[in-house]
Every structure is written in structure tokens, then in C-alpha cells.
Design goal:
Blueprint: H1 5-25, H2 29-32, H3 35-42, E1 55-58, E2 61-64, H4 69-97, H5 103-125, H6 135-176
Antiparallel strand pairs: 1-2
Helix pairs in contact: 1-4, 1-5, 4-5, 4-6, 5-6
Length: about 180
Amino acid sequence: MTMSRTTFLRALAVVLWTCLIFVFSSEPYEKQSIQPLLHEKLGDSGLLQAMPDLAITYNDTTLSTQRDPFQFVEFIFRKGAHLFMYGVLAAGWSLLLGARVRGGRLLVLVMAAVALTASLDEWNQSHVAGRYSLPSDVGIDIVGGLMGFMSVQVLNLLHIVLTRYRLYHRMETVKRGDTS
């Protein structure tokens, strides 16, 4: 049995995206920090200081918009990046496996791949200076994976509905004899 070109490209995309995740998790925190850029671009403009009073406790530390708005924005950015990276990973796995596996089995396989990747990613981070390995980050990655999986399912459903609508519309046009 040979692999189709589409399957090969999807598998390659999943492998490359997984490698990218590990490249990012291997970088020290200082190399990834966007706080210097935020300070440079926004400085003391008051924009960040005008943020509402919000606080999040993470890794036994309270991050607050009032105490350090730059740190707070970076935290939200970094967690958003996790959601995005693992959402794309799950979407890739869904597209790769979706032709052969359906329904609940597809969800289980995709999320197992996401959870395994996230766990290995956290283990990798535990060996990088200035980085922390937290089980809660695996949870965030899994949420991102679920978002990516669901996005693919919704897009597949929309594709089916639109295809059926166009087919129905074409058949009705032919029945009426309207060829314009």
C-alpha cells in the first residue's frame, strides 16, 4: 500500500509542526520574552496602564495588570500561543487521520497525540534554563487541541452543507430547464 501525495504532505506538516513546537520549547525564556518589545513600542504611553484591574494566579504567582501590565500581557500572549500551536497540531492530526478514522475514535486518537506531544514538550522544557514544566500547561495545550479539532469538524460540516446545497440548487435548475 502506497501513501498518497496528500497523505504524505499532511504527515510531513504534522511532523514539521511538532518539531517547531519542540524548537520553541527548547529556547530559554529570555529569548522568547516579548516584554522588551512591549516596553519599546508602548513604553510609558499609559496604554497598558489603562487596562482593567485583572489578576491571574499561575505557578503560585499572581500576575496583575496593575502591578506589571507588561508581564500580564506577555502571559496572555504566551498562553494564546500555546492554544494556537496545539490547535494547529490537532487540526493537522485531524486532517491526516480523518480519511481513515471517524467520530469518537478520531477524537481519542487526535487528543492522545496532542496530550503526548504536550507532555513530552513539558518534559523537554524542564531541561531548559529559565523554563518551568507545569501540568497545567498540558491542560492548556489540550484545550488548544480541542479547539483545533472542533474547528476542523465545523469546517468539514460547513463543506458538506454547502456542497449539498449547491448540488440541490443545480438539480432544481436542471428540473426547471433553466440553463442560464
